Amino acid sequence: MYRTIRWLDRCIEAHGRPHDQNIFPIVQGGLDAELRKKCAAELTKRDVAGFAIGGLSGGEEKAMFWRMVDVSTDCLPDDKPRYLMGVGFAEDLVVCSALGCDMYDCVFPTRTARFGNALVRSGSLNLRNKMFAKDYRPIDDKCGCSTCRQYTRAYLHTIATNEAVACSLISVHNVAFQLDLMRSIQKSIKEDKFPEFIHEFFRILHPDGTYPGWAVEALNKVNVHLNNCDIQNGSKGAISKEIKS
């Protein structure tokens, strides 16, 4: 954490292309909330374009993950973008956007494509599964990506296990899926309909109404309540603030 602060000062001193590059210092501190607060307090003293949140999405429990995101965004200014590093699961993107994050990056869409998995709103389709051998629909008939316009699930099933090009074709769709999800989140926020979007998103992803406890607790924190649901692995958390802008 201290190394990050020292590195930021070195970057600011060496920064010679302010019109071409932005500096986003990284809020570190692992799973220690006090270290994250201390780090953010130091980083926000410097004049930078935005802030990153790092050191997460590395296998820690989701209950700790969302709390560290929450602590970090609480300490960062509202008028500068917050970039959450290494996060890419659709569920995480929706929840962390509610917690105040704006930008993300992750290898997940392309990594999972290498195993034949195509992302859809209900989760993912394992196109290696024999059930897709005679399925002549696109991955998602509502998706406008080049893969969905030109190739069927059956064709992708045929090549998913033995042709490297399948990785590229499914990756094209998965990246398009992520971009569409983020556009939908952005649109719902601008229209002041983000809570409704969250409810619909979780209803599609978990049609049985059994939502992950960590997500329920995180969303409760920003006054979005997934009502009439069974909670896995935890109980509802306290209600203390609105969705962060």
Description:
By secondary structure, the protein is of the alpha/beta class. The protein has 2 domains: 2-106 and 185-232, Queuine tRNA-ribosyltransferase-like (TIM Barrel), CATH 3.20.20; 109-177, no CATH class. It is 46% helix and 11% strand. The chain contains 10 helices and 8 strands. It has helices at residues 2-14, 33-43, 62-74, 90-98, 108-113, 146-150, 153-160, 165-190, 194-205, 213-221, and strands at 26-27, 51-53, 82-85, 103-105, 117-120, 123-126, 210-212, 230-232. The strands form 3 sheets. It has a 4-stranded parallel β-sheet. Mean pLDDT is 92; it is low at 228-241.
Write a short abstract of this structure:
The protein is 46% helix and 11% strand.
The CATH architecture classification of the largest domain is: Alpha-Beta Barrel
Number of strands: 8
What's the shape?
A: globular
Q: Assign a percent range to the helix content.
A: 40-55%
User: What is the number of helical segments per DSSP (H or I, 4+ residues)?
Assistant: 10
Report, as a whole number of angstroms, the end-to-end distance: 26 Å
Low-confidence stretches: 228-241
Rounded to the nearest angstrom, the radius of gyration is 20 Å
The succession of helices and strands, N to C, reads HEHEHEHEHEEHHHHEHE
Q: Please list the strands of the largest sheet in the order they lie side by side.
A: 1-2-3-4
CATH C-level of the largest domain: Alpha Beta
Summarize the biggest pleated sheet.
4 strands, parallel
**Residue-averaged pLDDT:** 92
> Structural class given helices, strands, pairing?
alpha/beta
Please indicate the percent range of residues in DSSP E strands (runs of 2 or more): 5-15%
Q: Could you state the CATH homologous superfamily of the largest domain?
A: Queuine tRNA-ribosyltransferase-like
Oligomeric state, counting identical vs distinct chains = single chain
